Each structure stands twice: as C-alpha cells, then as structure tokens.
Amino acid sequence: MTTTETVIRYLFLAAAACFVIGLHLMNSPKTARRGNLLSAAAMAVGIGATAVLLIAEGAITTTGWLVLLAGAAVGSAAGLYLARSVEMTAMPQLVSLFNAVGGGAAALLAVEHLLQAETVHVRETIPGGLDILIGAVTFSGSVVAAGKLQGLIPGRPIVFLGARALNVVLGLVFVGSTAWLVLDEGNLVAMLLLLVAATVFGVTMVLPIGGADMPVVISLLNAFTGTAVAMAGFVLGEVVLIVAGALVGASGAILTKLMADAMNRSITNIILGGFGTGDEAATADDSGGTVRSVSADDVAIQLAYAQKVVVVPGYGLAAAQAQHELASLAEILEGHGVEVSYAIHPVAGRMPGHMNVLLAEAQVPYPALREMDEINPDFPQVDVALVIGANDVTNPIARKPGNPMSGMPILDVDKARSIVVVKRSMGHGYAGIDNTLYSDPKTGMFFTDAKKGMVALAAAVRSFVA
C-alpha cells in the first residue's frame, strides 16, 4: 500500500468516526445542527479522499471523469435547489425521494460490480444479491410513498385481487434468483430477474399501506437505504460505506420500532397494510355528539386569563405554515405572564421530528418542547390546551377497545381544564374515525385556517392585555 493509500484509508476511518459522533449529537435538538454539519463535513472528506485516490491510481479515463463531474454537478444542483425551495409540508416527500435515490444508487453499484468484475466470489455475490434486492425495493417503494404523500397516488390503502399471492411468488423469485446468482456468479438473467422482482415488490408493499402508517414506512425505507449501502460496501470492499450504511440502517430501524410502538402497531402489521384511510377528509361529524363553536374573542379571553397553556401542534399547523404566527401569539402570552409549552407526539405531522423542525424555524426555544411521556402527567394542571391541526394523536377513543386506534398512545389533552381546537372543518384524521375530543363539553371548536386563526387570536389577546 502506498503512502497516499495509507493516508486515504486513515481519512476514511476519521470520516467514519465523525459519522458516529454526528449521529450521537443528533440525539438532542440542541446539538443536532452540529451533528448534521459534522456528518456532512465527514461526507465531503470521504468524497474528496475518494477523488484523490482515483487520481493517484489512474482508475478513471478522461471521459469517465467528465461523466462523473457532470453527474456530480447535476445531482448537487438538484439537491441544493430542492433542499432550499421545498415547503416544510413537503419535506416527507423529499426525504422519501432521497431514500429512492440512495437505494437505487446502491443497487446499481452492485449490478455494475458484478457485471464488470473479471472474477466474482461468493463473498461478493451474496451481499451483491441482497444489495440489489433491498436497493430495488427501497427505490420503487419510496417513489410510491412520495407519490402518496404528494397526492399523486391515492393515500388510502390500495389492494387488488391476488396481491398477496403475487407477493408470495415474488418472495420465491427472490430466493431462486439470489441462489442462481450465487451459484452462477454474475449471471445477467438472474440479476435482471432479481432486480425486476424486487422493484415490483416495492410497489406492491407500499400500495396497500394507508396514510396513517406513512411516517413509519418512510422511516423503514430509510433503514432499507442504509442497509443497501452497507451491502454495497461489502461488495466493493469499502469500509466507509459499510460503516455509514450500517449507521443509517441501524438508526432507521430503531426509529421505525419506536414510531411503530408510539402508534401501537407492529412493523409486520404495517407492512401487511390495511390501516388508515389516507388524505380524504370527511365533511361532517357523524358521531352524534354536540360540538361547541367558539370565536377568536372567546378563545382570547381564556388564553389571556390562563396561567398555564399547552399548545398541541399537528399537521394542520404545518399545512398552513402558521408556526411564526403561533410563536408571536406565544410571545404575547408569555409577556403577560402566561406559561406556554408545546406537547409533541412522536408521530405528529408526517415524519419524525416534523413539529420540532417547524417550531425551531420560528425560534421557539427547545426547552419549551416537551415529549408525550413528559407532558401527559401535567395536563390536569393545564388551564387551556390549544390544539392546532392535530387529530388522531389527541383522540380519546384510542383508550377504548375495538377500533382502529385502540391502544395507540395519545396526548392526554382531554384532561386539561379547558380545550380549544383550531381546525378548518370536522374532517377526520388519517385513522378515518371521529375524534370524541371535539364533543367533550370542555372543548371549544375554533373553525378557521391555522394561520388566520393565530393572527386573529394574537390581535384579540393583545387587545385584552393592553
């Protein structure tokens, strides 16, 4: 090994260590930004070191460099544009598309290596087959998930006749084509068979999953992406790929398990699908309960004379982009001596940390954000629980057996002394069932767009406390 190669390997090792440290820093909102920057810097070092190694070895022709640089320029420009221009409400779709790109790229790495290598060993064909399988499933599954979240594909579970039988056949094809690939190293037909079967399975796996489970699906596909990258590392013999992929795969798997637990769902049950109704909202409450409508002035009086207010943000807040107006309202209340905090459910919004990112953008201090297990015991002492666009995560029916939400941990909003729900209509959440919180005698329904509602409440509260 030359001196250059030795230095490059040490740089790869340092980058892998930085990935681990960066992931650890992401444990806390206070240090997450530093963790992200450190991991990005480590990735930049890894890319730069790889380029130096390729130059030193003369492994790429001039044409190859032109293609490589053109691809890097186009990909970087597209990624930068999307990351800077995407709306916060569309962030889950963007993450899903990134998963698709990562999974597809990992699968192509294995295809290229198995086709181009002069001799292929079993130690390469086994992880290569797994890489193609997992990467292709991730690619097509993530594209379908992004389509569902964007509304291009109906969010409801889509099940067709013979779907489960088709999945069984695809499973047999996985086993058969992978074995064929191992026994006849680099066989093109076996590889194409595996690639097509895995791509079809990604589609049939995600189509039957309803919108309620989509945050968990995105997290699961993220774990698949990391696993596929780790497999690509085994195929190519690159330790940094193995470490980076294993970290993403392991962290994604842990997050998926935590989210599934928060929804009282097993991962197997989610993959089998059949829960949730997607994005279609009902237009009326058919629960038979009486709903009490309130005005901005009614709510403002409650808020102005409260000592303790807990805000429960949900997807409706994100959809209306009302985080800045909410922060302004909270600032007025805090200036009047009211204690304001925010209750964050693990699956609020459409992806993990969605509400945290949204409120951080509005400069809401991290200590004011409180997780479900931490805030729930305090609700009986809360004067006003202000629910903004959150539905299923506050539905008390989850405590009762015999319904699609039974057993799902929720925020105990109904135990507050008074509840105000800001909502545009009586539409259902993803679970597709009525929210009994709305007909609770303590609940007032403030029917409005979240952004307009926050502006109206801020003006009304200001007039009371001036």
TrEMBL record:
SUPFAM superfamilies: DHS-like NAD/FAD-binding domain. InterPro entries: DHS-like_NAD/FAD-binding_dom, NADH_DH_b, PNTB-like. Residues 11-458 form the NADP transhydrogenase beta-like domain. Pfam families: PNTB. It catalyses: NAD(+) + NADPH + H(+)(in) = NADH + NADP(+) + H(+)(out). Its EC number is 7.1.1.1. Its main location: membrane. It is found in: Cell inner membrane. It is a multi-pass membrane protein. GO terms for molecular function: NADP binding; oxidoreductase activity; proton-translocating NAD(P)+ transhydrogenase activity. The keyword Translocase applies. The transhydrogenation between NADH and NADP is coupled to respiration and ATP hydrolysis and functions as a proton pump across the membrane. Belongs to the PNT beta subunit family. This is NAD(P) transhydrogenase subunit beta.
